[in-house]
Input
Amino acid sequence: MKRTDPPPAAPAPLLPQPVRVLVVLAAAVVVLAGLSFARDVAGPVLLGAAIAIICHPVRHPLERRGWPSWAATTAVIVVAYAVLAALAAMLFYAGVQFARLVVDFRDELQASARAAYEWLHAMGLDKQAADATASVLDPGTIASVAASLGGTVLSVLTAFFLVLAYVIFMAADGSRYARAEAQFGAGIRPTMGRIREFTRGVRTYYVVNATFGAIVAIIDGLALWAVGVPAPVVWAILAFVTNFIPNIGFVLGLIPPAVLALVVGGWPLMLAVIAIYCVVNVVLQVLVQPKFVSDAVNLSLTLSFLSVVFWTFVIGPLGAILSIPLTLLVRALVLGDDPGTRWLRWLSGDAVGPAAAKT
Output
């Protein structure tokens, strides 16, 4: 009887598991530090990539109708430029109107600051605490915040011209990358599948946010106009833009109109504005929108919130708007379809369960 030899044992890993984890973490720190150092370039590149991904499907119906590739690429670039121009125009208008509001209501802001100081002093707070709290309504403080926001908007507009160039290159390359599977065969099909899943998630995420953002902006703007808050269009634009910031965008969009309502109409008007935002934004952004977003990107709420904080720290203000796509990109690159990382995908919020593991 012929004896069968046992199968050879698997070779031992070169490095122990803890050492490999440390090496991966160290490499991630180096990459993220480099990305943060080059944020002035990385931010526009990533924004251009997101715009190109959103507008890329424009080419498909045109090519099916017989348009040449260069004409379909031109159509993608035109649509991308239109999106960027609309965003830039809204931000410019809102910034100019906000600066005018600070000048127009300077006296009211000073009166509110004095009233807040006197009330806090009467409540027994020490002078330092009262000064710090009352300074929130001081025109100088608000003007400095406006200047800071203006500097941020200016940097974004400066990067806007870089984005215009990046969109051209990325739109042209998108047509070329779409033929990769036909060029290299079925061997790269899993990779192309992950890329298509990522781009589909990015597009759906931004379409859902833009749709709900427009609905929230219209309702908020009309409600603020009805109760008499000045410049409701500005706050509607702010509500639309901050809707792209997960979790904390609602708070960022609420603070300026609430402060202005306090200055113009006192506590009753401020509470009315807070009530309007809580009803409209909580119902749409907290109860309804997450269902559609989770179906599109499959990210847990905790990871979505941490993504905003993390990517803002890494690449600046654009990181708040690009946080979800960047997190999806990292998950697609690092985890992929490896069965050994399936539990990590599930932990991140992906719809991967035992049934999927068996298929």
Observations:
- Residues 353-359 have pLDDT under 50 and may be disordered.
- The chain is about 80% helix and 0% strand.
